[in-house]
Design brief:
Elements: H1 2-25, H2 30-43, H3 48-75, H4 82-103, H5 108-128, H6 147-159, H7 164-173, H8 178-203, E1 214-215, E2 218-219, H9 220-241, H10 246-269
Antiparallel strand pairs: 1-2
Helix pairs in contact: 1-2, 1-8, 1-9, 2-3, 3-5, 3-8, 3-9, 4-6, 4-8, 5-10, 6-7, 6-8, 7-8
């Protein structure tokens, strides 16, 4: 009983931190939730081969209400580019479904390695090239451009994050101001998390290794502990974000990603 109480408190605390970060960086909070949940599931004795799958699937489920809360807070500050969301949404959604399907077929260690590697590359850009030259003066159009949001949805779904990690960097390279990129990424989190959650629930359906209280690879226990806290805290993060300069927000985002990627590399290889 004491063990589960400690886990519950840890998940509630994780939800608060993830909610603040969701509002601050538009990331959905998954980049914090995934490694913490993976650790908690190990503490609870879940099979290592599916531990990361359950962490990712549950994280995506918590991102659904978190993204709504975060996007609303940013929209009130006119920091959501609805036009970009309309153009990219179908491709992000398609990528999210593909990502969930691919993730269901690989080992947890592979997912953790992909997560850590991509997060570290994004961090290098944000820390050392925060004001580097943009690739374009505006978000490009055309058939080939659809590959970008598809990739954002795919990798984000595989990693259990809301897409902000990749969306923010991509949009800033296309000359979208950092605060507007963060707000827009928050709404992409909803587009990714809905199909991603469904995909992980179906992929783990009937698996005898899943923990009690789960629907496929989605844990209702983890969702119940984390989601309310993230929804509560997301507007706090949005308020903090709009108090920072663009350069300072870039640097904070990069530093955060370095810590998260190092933690996951450690979990994957040691």
């Amino acid at each position: 009983m004491e063990q589960w109480l400690i886990l519950g408190v840890a998940m509630l605390a994780t939800g608060l931190v993830a909610g603040v970060l969701a509002g601050l960086f538009g990331i959905g909070g998954g980049i914090v939730i995934v490694p913490v949940l993976e650790t908690a599931l190990g503490f609870a004795g879940v099979d290592p081969a599916i531990r990361m799958h359950v962490a990712v699937g549950t994280s995506l489920a918590t991102i659904i209400p978190t993204s709504i809360s975060s996007a609303r807070a940013h929209h009130q500050r006119k920091a959501v580019d609805v036009e970009i969301v309309k153009r990219w949404a179908i491709f992000v959604l398609t990528g999210a479904l593909l990502g969930a399907w691919v993730a269901s077929m690989v080992h947890s260690r592979v997912l953790a390695s992909i997560f850590a590697s991509l997060a570290f590359l994004v961090a290098i850009k944000m820390l050392f090239f925060p004001e580097s030259r943009n690739l374009t003066d505006d978000v490009p159009r055309g058939p080939l451009v659809s590959l970008i949001p598809t990739a954002i949805g795919g990798f984000s779904s595989m990693m259990g994050i809301g897409g902000g990690t990749f969306s923010v960097m991509t949009l800033t390279l296309f000359n979208v101001p950092i605060h507007r990129a963060v707000g827009t990424a928050a709404l992409f989190g909803l587009v990714i998390s809905l199909p991603g959650t469904l995909g992980f629930a179906i992929a783990g359906w009937g698996d005898p290794r899943i923990p009690a209280g789960s629907l496929g690879f989605v844990s209702f226990v983890g969702f119940a502990c984390i989601a309310p806290a993230t929804v509560l805290a997301a507007p706090w993060g949005a308020r903090i974000a709009h108090g920072f300069s663009a350069k300072r927000l870039n640097m904070l985002f990069g530093a955060f990603l370095v810590v998260a990627s190092i933690r996951l590399f450690y979990r994957a290889f040691l």
